[in-house]
Design a protein that fits this description.
single chain; 488 residues; alpha/beta; Amidase signature (AS) enzymes; two-stranded antiparallel ribbon; 15 strands; AS_sf; Amidase domain-containing protein; FAAH2; Amidase_dom
Length: 488
Amino acid sequence: MVSKFIQMSATDISRLISSKQVSVYEVVSTHIEQANRINSKLNAIIVPHYELALKKAREFDKIKTVDFTKRPFFGVPFTVKESISVQGFPNTYGSYYRRTDIATNNATSVQRLLNAGAIIIGQTNLSELALWPECNNVLYGKTSNPHNIKYTSGGSSGGDAAIVGIGGVPFALGTDGGGSVRIPAAHCGVFGHKPSSRFVPMSGHFPLDKYYSHCSSSQFIARYFSMGLLCRKAEDLLPLLKVISGPDGNDLNVNSCFEHHQILNSIKGLKVYLLEDKFYPLLKRTSPEIIQNLRNVAFELEKEGAEIIPCNLPFLNDACDLWFDIMSNAKDITLDSFINNNHSIVIEVLRMISGRKRIMPSSLLLLLLDKVSSKNKKSYDQFWKVKNRLTVQINSYLNKKSVLLLPTFPTTAIKHNRSYLSPFDFLYAAIFNVLELPATSVPVSISKNNLPISIQIVGAHGCDHIPISIACYLEKLFGGWTLPSQIN
C-alpha cells in the first residue's frame, strides 16, 4: 500500500487517512522519501520543510476526531512555489535583491490549504521573479525535467511541476501570470490549472505583497495574475480550487458570486473550437507531434458527442500585444523596480560580463525589451478599449457549452537555455491571463524522445469546471500523468 501513495490522487489519499487505513506519518514520510531521493538530480525543492512536516504528521496522527468536511485534505502533503509567502520562510523569488527576505505571514491560498489539513513538505524553485518560462535563477540555480534532466522543467513554477512529476507530492501551489503553471505542467506531464480571473486571491504574492500592495496599480495587475494548481491527478483540481477560492478582503478583484460547479457527467453537445497553429507572428509553429495529439483528442471528444469546429481566431494576435501592456499601465510599479531595484542596466551588464551577475540574462532581456517598446505601449484608456473588444469577441465563441482546444506550448520541453531562441512561445498560454479565462493543461501522450505531450483546454469565464471535466475524461482515455520511467 505504501509504495502506491506516490501515484495516488490527493483525494484518494485523504480517503485512506479518513478511514484509518493509513497514518498521516506513513503518507508524508513516503512522499518526503520519494522527493528527497530524486531532488538532488532535479533541484525542485529548494527549501525543505521535511522535519517540520514529519512533526506535523505525528501530531495529526494523535488527533482522535477530524471533521473531513472542513479539512478535506487532512494529512496530504504539498509544496509551495517559493515566491508565495509562507510565514517564517524564505520569500526571495530567486532574486539577488531579495536574498534575505523572510515572509511575515502566509499567503491566503497557503493558509486556506493549511486550514484544509494539507501539510507543506517544501518550497520549490522558480524562474527569477516568476518572469520567464524556464526555471532558473541566481540564488537557487536551475530545475531539470523529471523525464530528462537535460531539459527544462518550464517556468515559472518549474519546481512545483518537477516535484509533482516525480511523485514527490500529489499537488502543488504555484502562480500563473503568463502560463507559469500551465507551461511547466505541460513540460513535466502533470495537470495544471489557471483559474478564472477574480476567483482566487493573489494576496501573498506580487503584486499583492509587502513591496507593492500599497501601490495604486497593484489591484490592476493582480487581476491578470492567478494562484494556480499543479496535480498528478485531474480529479484533485476542482476540490482544491474550491479550497483556495473566494474573497479575502485584500485582493479587491475577487468576486464573491462565483458558483462552484460539479464535474460534468457528459461532454455530449459541447462545442470544441480547435486551434492548431500560431496566431501571432513571433510564435513558433506548433510541432507536428502536438498537432497530431490535438487531432487525436478532438477525434475522441467527437466520438463522445462533442462538436469539433476547426477555427482561426485572428483577434488573438491583439491579445498577445495586450498582455505586454499590463505592466506598462501600472504607473507606480515598473519592471526596473521589480527586477533590480532601479539599478543601472549598464552596471548589470558589466556585472554579468565579469561573472558577478545579480540578475539573470532573461531578466536583463525583459528590461531591454521594456525600454525599446515603451513608446508603442497603449494608454490606459486604449488598453481597456482593446480589452473590452477582445472580451466580446472571445465570448462569441466561449460559453457554458463550449471550449477552446489548442497547444499549451508549441513544442514539448526544451533543453536548458533554449528559451532565449524563441522567447515568445509562452504566449500560447499567456493570452488567457489577459483574457481572464480558465485554462487547463492536460498530459495526453509521450513524444518520440520520451517527453510529455500536453494540450490546453480553455473555458468561458467562471466555467472552470468545464475544462477540468474534459481533463478528467482525457485522463481516463489517455492515461494522464505517469511516473517517469527512470525512477519507476
